[in-house]
Amino acid sequence: MSRFPVCIIGVGPAGRNYLLALLKSWDIEVVGFVNRSPDRRAAVQAETKVPGFATLKDLLAGVATRPRLAVIASANTTHRDFAIEVMEAGIDCFCEKPMAMSLEHCREMLAVSQRTGRALQIGFEYRYGSMTGRITELLNLGTFGDLRSLDIIDSRGHWWPDSPDTPVEQVWRLNREIGGGPLLHCGIHQLDLIRGYGGEVAEVQAFVAPQSLAFYPKDIPDHLTLHLRLVSGAVASLTIQHNLGSTWYRPSPPWVPKYHEVPGHFMDIRLTGTGGAAIAELYGERLHIARYDVANRETVLDRTETFHHHSPARTHHDTPGMIIETARRLAAGRGVMHDALDSYRTTVLGMVCEEAVQEALATGWTSARRTIPSA
User: Fold this and answer.
1) Burial of 298 by CB count in 10 Å (0-12 exposed, 13-18 middle, 19+ buried)?
2) pTM of the predicted protein model
3) Which of 109, 263, 281, 286 is found 20 to 30 A from 303 (Cα to Cα)?
4) For the residues of 142-171, what is the DSSP string, one character each?
5) What is the residue range of 34's domain?
6) DSSP character at residue 210
7) Last residue of a domain, one of 123, 153, 182
8) Does 340 reside within a domain?
9) Residues 150 and 106 in one domain
């Protein structure tokens, strides 16, 4: 049986990790990778023995087996250009989130996918984690009745993993023009979960706390909360905090902890319905499920499901697993895991939420309520 041929575009820390994971998959062949930096290209090629190229054109000319899927793990600002180049070359595309840095660029990607007939999968892997996917399953089974509220809190430490003397403009995660900021770079995952669990969002209002971290740029909040009203009538919230814990890693001075065990690092999902409730401790790998005993006026803990038997990333953040599943689906002719237009709708929501956050920063506390346009 021939293995499914894949290439990777961008082998920074994320792309390199994807490459290493794919090399362990028995039914996938990584035929090559693209990276513009000669030094990075040489280092990853020496480590993995996978041939590296400066451009996709060079890769297609230099590999023995043409890739059927390209994984885009390059800088956020390059997603649109690489995705279009890949699909124009007749190759299906897995693109890391965010989809692109503007809605116009996203629409261009959708148009090229439709015109060329090439698959476009955006990497919203949180939907498919062992715990986050279990919540979807329980919602579909009616375990909680009709959804009433959904709250997500994400506290992952601050976003300055670079050396302390790095100029702030070079810390790309804290540069909205390059990285997108806390919402579009990471919070977009939680917004996608809110849509997946509760359906479309009707409106949003943003709140920010006065800044705690003096080394953060003024347009990057270290503590923000979104309040969302869903079309269904349910309500949701998303809180993102960067000021409760240390950074998740740092090469200099060395700091590489088990981030999910560090105080101040946690991600929890809480939901209530007409029939019960749930608390998901993603870093704690526990899902507590309760039901409402109306006759006895009690909330009863039915059970706690544990997810300790695998890597913590599997609970919600297994991008290599999503890439592998996408490749297998394409190999079997079953298409991608979810439609790119759905990912576009999440991106629309993210863009509106980011506008609300910037308005809240400008006022010093809150934004006006903003309506989410239908996509």
Assistant:
1) exposed
2) 0.96
3) 263
4) TTT-SEEEEEEEEEE--S--S-TTS-GGG-
5) 4-123
6) P
7) 123
8) no
9) no
Per-residue buried b or exposed e for 89-113, using 16+ beta carbons within 10 Å of the residue's own CB = bebbbbbbbbbbbebebbebbbebb
Lookup: tokens for 203: 């409106």
Residue with tokens 């993993």: 161
Those residues of the chain that have pLDDT short of 50 are none
Q: For position 1, what pLDDT does the model report?
A: 63
Q: How far apart are CA 296 and CA 106, in angstroms?
A: 52
Place of tokens 């390199």: 16
Query: What CATH number does the domain containing 138 carry?
Result: 3.30.360.10
Residue-level length of the chain: 375
Torsion sign over Cα 202, 124, 154, 252: negative
* CATH number (domain holding residue 10): 3.40.50.720
Rounded to whole angstroms, the Cα distance separating 230 from 148 reads: 10
Question: Under 8 Å CB-to-CB from 320, ≥6 apart: which residues?
Answer: 17, 18, 21, 22
Instruction: Give residues with Cβ within 8 angstroms of 336, minimum separation 6.
Output: 92, 119, 120, 121, 326, 329, 330
Q: Are residues 108 and 148 in the same domain?
A: no
- Specify the pLDDT at position 261: 86
Among 105, 123, 141, where does a domain finish? 123
What is the gyration radius of the CA atoms in the chain, in angstroms? 21
